[in-house]
């Protein structure tokens, strides 16, 4: 028996999502039905809405979610109805060689974990509906494997907790699990959107002695300072000038650069601003087929490292506990990262507001009236002014 639920469906890129009824399957053995409380709007979702990334259509996007477990498949043991959970797009099996080596984002059995005989969602007419990242959280309910869900305590408000699902996992994770930053390090974070701000906070909590925020938009630099950047650098159109300015700020270059944009030029910039023995960690997703060009001399003579950190090289199931403790102690500021909270029905307005440089994260409330006044009006008024 399928359950009718309302979902925001992507039918055609470049067009608004359509709020409509779809039918959700029952959970398979290891699956869980989650009723989302809050879901964040991520730039990856926006790329699919605009058509910059492609997905089978129709589709339900949404992958940064916190919610309550409604019911569970008969083999589920880790969570129970009533538990509060955060979801991830990087589930892991726990027993493959990558998982055993502590690299769950490189789990080799993801396809097997995600395999199911029937589509999770279908339209009223029986047409299969794709779900982004195995979730599809822009809906009144979604199905996830139990390995994609981390329990979270009730003291983290859901408007903030949803950020742990993608933005914090990726940015904080890249700083702590990818770059493995320590108190000795000088760090540059390129791109100060939500993920970049999360990387700045990760670097601060890891104890970095300098954190240089780099962005092409001045307003974002001001925000980055409030989250722990010690220095800021406005990137102009000439990357060589940016490299020069960075090396004046931090003599000789930084020991770690984190790229949170997802462009070849900014990934190359991350490598160019490294001191000898430095590491550039690239987390931004790039279009298929994109290539990077780096000077071989700088790589070999300088013992430099260029590495990726897909989804922050996270260890999701234990990371959520770590994030919660840092939030509780006041070190990890999630609340100030939520620029606006909107009702689910205003999802398209939310995507439009992401263009405003003052936006860090916009979250949708799915269950009740927002527990804070919407700040979207303020943003759009400012944008119009
Ligand atoms: Zn995301
Ligand atoms: Zn695995």
UniProtKB/TrEMBL annotation:
GO terms for biological process: formaldehyde catabolic process. One of its GO terms (cellular component) is cytosol. Belongs to the zinc-containing alcohol dehydrogenase family. Gene3D superfamilies: Medium-chain alcohol dehydrogenases, catalytic domain, NAD(P)-binding Rossmann-like Domain. GO terms for molecular function: S-(hydroxymethyl)glutathione dehydrogenase [NAD(P)+] activity; zinc ion binding. It holds the Pfam family ADH_N. SMART domains: PKS_ER (SM00829). Residues 14-364 form the Enoyl reductase (ER) domain. It comes from Amycolatopsis panacis. Transmembrane segments: none annotated. Its cofactor is Zn(2+). This is Zn-dependent alcohol dehydrogenase. The keyword NAD applies.
């Amino acid at each position: 028996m399928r359950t009718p639920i309302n979902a925001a469906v992507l039918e055609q890129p470049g067009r608004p999502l359509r709020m409509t009824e779809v039918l959700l399957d029952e959970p398979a053995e290891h699956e869980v039905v989650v009723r989302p409380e809050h879901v964040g709007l991520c730039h990856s979702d926006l790329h699919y809405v605009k058509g910059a990334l492609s997905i089978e259509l129709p589709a339900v996007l949404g992958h940064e979610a916190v919610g309550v477990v409604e019911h569970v498949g008969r083999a589920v043991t880790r969570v129970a109805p009533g538990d509060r959970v955060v979801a991830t797009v990087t589930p892991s099996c726990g027993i493959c060689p990558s998982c055993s080596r502590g690299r769950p984002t490189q789990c080799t059995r993801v396809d097997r974990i995600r395999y199911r005989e029937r589509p999770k969602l279908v339209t009223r007419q029986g047409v299969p509906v794709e779900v982004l990242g195995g979730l599809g959280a822009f809906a009144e309910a979604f199905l996830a494997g139990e390995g994609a869900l981390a329990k979270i305590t009730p003291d983290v408000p859901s408007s903030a907790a949803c950020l742990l699902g993608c933005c914090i996992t990726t940015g904080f994770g890249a700083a702590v699990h990818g770059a493995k930053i320590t108190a000795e390090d000088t760090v540059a974070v390129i791109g100060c959107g939500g993920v970049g701000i999360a990387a700045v906070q990760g670097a601060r909590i890891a104890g970095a002695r300098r954190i240089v925020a780099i962005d092409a938009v001045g307003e974002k630099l001001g925000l980055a300072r409030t989250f722990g950047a010690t220095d800021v650098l406005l990137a102009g159109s000439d990357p060589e000038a940016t490299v020069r300015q960075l090396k004046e700020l931090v003599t000789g270059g930084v020991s770690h650069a984190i790229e949170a944009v997802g462009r070849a030029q900014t990934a190359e910039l991350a490598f160019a601003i490294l001191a000898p023995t430095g590491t550039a960690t690239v987390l931004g997703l790039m279009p298929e087929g994109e290539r990077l060009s780096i000077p071989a001399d700088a790589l070999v003579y300088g013992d430099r490292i260029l590495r990726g950190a897909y989804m922050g090289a996270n260890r999701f199931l234990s990371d959520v506990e770590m994030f919660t403790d840092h939030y509780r102690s006041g070190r990890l500021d999630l609340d100030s990262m939520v620029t606006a909270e909107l009702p689910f029905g205003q999802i398209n307005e939310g995507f439009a507001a992401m263009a405003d440089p003052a936006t860090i994260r916009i979250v949708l409330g799915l269950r009740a009236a927002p527990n804070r006044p919407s700040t979207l009006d303020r943003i759009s008024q400012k944008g119009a002014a």
